[in-house]
Q: What sequence folds into this?
């Protein structure tokens, strides 16, 4: 998609491109020896997006301003206010992660509250409750819509506070936010041709993977985008069951980050700085300290990815349950994986992403 407007959008055709698959990235799958090279290619594309693309003004909205004095004048410019001693600061937009979480939890609350079928005695609510809290949770004695929303809001608030406290200067840029395998296209011939176009000015070089479908694009944390990509390597888009064992190990993450940092530095050194790079608090070099910091951020944003897409799965399932004619018994069989095992199921996907969120949280809290 090239652009959109009030009643349509403009798209382009990418010749001889095929969606990537999880096995393309994993070296130990099907004796694939090109996984690391492909990871490097994706890392370059992501860096070009983050640092070589100017954020559209409509994503930024109206910036907030903070001032040290109450006498601030909104009539004159920031520069004039500073001259008068009224110190002003333009705050960056709220990261998309928090906006999406707040929006989707609010929509889930509306879906549960406005649908007469979701009450404490309804089998649908029992399944939703089971998906959100886990099938083995023995601490809960009652089924409650309020408990579901309160739990999700509480986890989102905890994660936001934790991230903002630990990483107050985490880099932000325009991010994709949905780097799943279907949104990363490869050369149909699996051949890489020489490309004379500057890497800093072309997000999708012919020789590299191509990123498509930016409907979830927003200003967000750069390391969230990367953590979300790593989570997508666990799969689950086919059967609703991501496999945490497929999550990239530290060595693979470092390969990705080194290539990402190198490409980012090339873009900045070439002088192709955009509003992205002015917002991003990038760290120079690829020292072990820098890598350790970024890996730490990715561990927390891995939780963010699982929480966000877990909520999304539950939200999609709420509409699905009433609109697509599933009976409660069928939905339960799908959730328990005794029916349609190889088919995608939103409720099963949401349950497993939230389960993975809790596993990641327990691992971090246990450090």
A:
């Amino acid at each position: 998609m090239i652009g959109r407007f009030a009643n349509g959008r403009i798209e382009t055709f990418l010749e001889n491109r095929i969606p990537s698959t999880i096995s393309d990235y994993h070296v130990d799958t099907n004796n694939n020896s090109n996984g690391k090279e492909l990871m490097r290619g994706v890392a370059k594309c992501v860096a070009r997006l983050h640092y070589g693309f100017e954020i559209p003004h409509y994503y930024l909205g109206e910036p907030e301003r903070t001032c040290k004095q109450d006498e601030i004048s909104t009539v004159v410019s920031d520069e004039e206010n500073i001259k008068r001693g009224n110190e002003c600061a333009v705050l960056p937009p709220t990261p998309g992660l928090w906006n999406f979480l707040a929006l989707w939890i609010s929509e889930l609350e509306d879906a549960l509250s406005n649908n007469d079928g979701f009450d404490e005695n309804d089998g649908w609510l029992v399944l939703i409750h089971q998906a959100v809290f886990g099938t083995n949770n023995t601490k809960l004695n009652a089924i409650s819509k309020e408990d579901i929303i309160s739990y999700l809001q509480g986890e989102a608030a905890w994660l936001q506070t934790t991230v903002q406290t630990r990483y107050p200067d985490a880099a932000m840029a325009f991010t994709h936010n949905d780097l799943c395998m279907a949104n990363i296209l490869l050369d149909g011939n699996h051949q890489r041709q020489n490309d004379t176009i500057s890497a800093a000015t072309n997000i999708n070089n012919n020789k590299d993977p191509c990123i498509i479908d930016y409907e979830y694009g927003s200003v967000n944390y750069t390391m969230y985008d990367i953590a979300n990509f790593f989570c997508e390597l666990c799969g689950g888009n086919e059967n609703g069951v991501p496999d945490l064992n497929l999550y990239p190990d530290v060595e693979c993450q470092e390969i990705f980050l080194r290539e990402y940092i190198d490409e980012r530095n090339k873009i900045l050194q070439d002088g192709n700085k955009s509003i992205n790079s002015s917002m991003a608090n990038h760290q120079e070099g690829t020292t072990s300290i820098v890598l350790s910091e970024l890996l730490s951020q990715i561990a927390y944003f891995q939780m963010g990815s699982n929480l966000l897409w877990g909520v999304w799965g539950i939200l999609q399932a709420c509409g699905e349950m009433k609109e697509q004619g599933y009976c409660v018994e069928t939905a339960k069989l799908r959730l328990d994986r005794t029916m349609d095992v190889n088919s995608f199921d939103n409720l099963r996907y949401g349950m497993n992403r939230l389960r993975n969120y809790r596993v990641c949280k327990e691992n971090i809290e246990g450090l």
Notes: The longest strand covers residues 172-175. The radius of gyration is 22 Å. The CA atoms of residues 184 and 279 lie 26 Å apart.
